[in-house]
Amino acid sequence: MFSPFAWLDRLGSLSTPKLVAIISFFAQLYFFVPVMTPYLLGKGLSLAQIAGMQTILMVTQLVMELPTGVLADWFGHRRSYQIALVMAVADEAITLLAESYPHFILGQVVAGTGFAFASGSVDALVYESLPPEGRTVGMQRAKGRIGASIQLASVFAYGVGAWITRELTMENMRLTLKLDVIGVGMSVVLALLLKEPIRHIIRDQPDSVKLIRTGWRTLRGNGELQRLVLISIATNAFVAHLLIFYQDYFLQAGVAPIWLGLGLSLGSVAAFFTQLHAWRLPVTLGNRKSLLIATGLPGVLYLLMAMIQRPALAVVLFVVQWGVVQLSLPLFSGLFNAYLEEGARATSLSLINGIVTIYIGIGGVVLGWLAGQSLSLMFGILGVVILAGTLLIQLQERSVS
After folding, report:
1. Residue from 363, 146, 378, 157 nearest 240 by CA
2. 120, 358, 369, 390: most buried, per Cβ within 10 A?
3. Do the Cβ atoms of 164 and 153 come closer than 8 Å?
């Protein structure tokens, strides 16, 4: 006899990486993103207040990184990921109902806490579900598939959002927020099907201070891991800030407003393929050459964006850049996890994410100031910094499993 919930049984039988990829698709259904700025302006916020919301989100994530990482290693990575998804839904609901700046700030605090819960727990959950043999390449491949799923959702959501808001009314923009709540809410339901690795079910709960010490000792005592973290910082392409800067870049270049959504959707198509196939680079070229390509290309493209202001070329450059800046994420994820201790993986990842977030937070303020002076100058300086950072890539060619 057919059961209407038979599809849930089939999903529950999938491997953890595949199920996380499906959950990530629904968790990325943000129809609202392309019209976020005009909606907030329509609610009476200033551009300075909108920029301040991004800072509050990052500060919240930074403050919560270590506590949530410890909780993930303590209570389980599955539970932490589920909490992160619930907070993502709560953020969209708060934004939908918000009528004043403090309400929007509350949404950012909730979102930042949710990001912190997810930052270490998702990677740890996926990595520990993989077979011990060839885990580094396996993680890079799994993260690529998850990233591709996220980009596929972005293509769909940004395209639909652009169509819904072709007439930029508050009613239409609120409709995209309602769709966000429904889409991300589905990810919460699907996350209930996740299974916790056996390790978390049978072992005693660790001491939180010991987890932090273990994570710090791992980072401090491993020169190659330190080099990886330094490379990831020095070559950081500021993806979250690019999401804001590209809009001004398009407007300055004379790009038609409809391309704000369409350009981001096409960029997500490019990112879908780069994330899906990123794991093939180290298999073919090795870690060092792969990171040189994945981190160096964004620097080159930022330099081109600094020089080119023609509408059609501006769209093309952004689309390619949005795909390329995603390329290094699966590579770093696989390499980081290869060096981390099993019992404190989420704590260690949260510690690394916290260090990177400090750089992004400070650097983002500087980039924002530079963009206010000259967007082209900001793109040019960022491109030079990224290319200089690629000189740090001196990874030894060895197999890490």
Report:
1. 363
2. 120
3. no
